[in-house]
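Subject: for your reference before the review

Hello V.,

The reviewers asked for a structural picture of the protein, and I figured it would be easier to keep everything in one thread rather than splitting it across files. Below is the amino acid sequence we used in the manuscript, unchanged from the supplementary table.
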Amino acid sequence: MPEVAVYAPGTVSWVDLQSKDLEKSKAFYSKLFGWQPNTIPDPQAGGYTWFLQDGKQVGALGGTQSPDQPTSWSIYFATEDADKTAEAVKAAGGKVIAEPFEVMGAGRMAGFQDPAGAFFSVWEPGSHKGFEAQIGQPSTYAWTELNARGFDKDLAFYTKVFGWGTKVSPMGEGKGDYTEFQVAGTSIGGGMEMMQPPGTPSHWLVYFGSKDTDATTKKVAELGGTIMLEPQDFPGGRFSIVTDPQGAAFGILTMKQA
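And here is what came back from the structure prediction:
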């Protein structure tokens, strides 16, 4: 895979963190993953900060849009036309939270909510194409996962909006199925019926790669984060789920070597 790519429609092309305290977020993720924060100097950018690894963009950081918004990671799917995607979202039963708009010449984005309540965004590239660092490497974006209350209706929704194919695998007795979402036969994310406690809203969870899930998870706790799910094995490798000190959830993932 090239280090810089134009991402196919329906694939994950970007993630960013909306934070209530930008400086605390910069410090935490810099120590955890070794990312170098690079804040855009233009005042119109509102402090938007690239996270770099070896000089390549792996994600970004910005402020929350309202006092009620929690610190959280956001997922962006690539689109060639944000306006057409917005129309597709409406037709499939989703909600448009932010109509498509220009982002300082970098591209166009829009924000949505799926029928089960999970939020996601799309990115129509301009000068900013998406991730520069290779996906799936240590300390880079590695995977995304939809946890939904009413997964079947979300599956129908995303199939209509993005044309995703699916690969379904049983997770074991009493655990239901795990569905991988595919673009051109390649899995780009997964999803399942929500198994978390009542009150947890439907959501997309971002995973970052690690050479050692256990060591990275331990480091999260040492830096003031919280371990939500201790490291455990799955058929493809090992993972955990954690939050940063401000409560933003994310996963840590180590894939088995082929």
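For the response letter, the relevant points are probably these. Residues 22-33 form the longest helix (12 residues). The chain has a mean pLDDT of 93.

Happy to draft the paragraph if you're swamped.

O.
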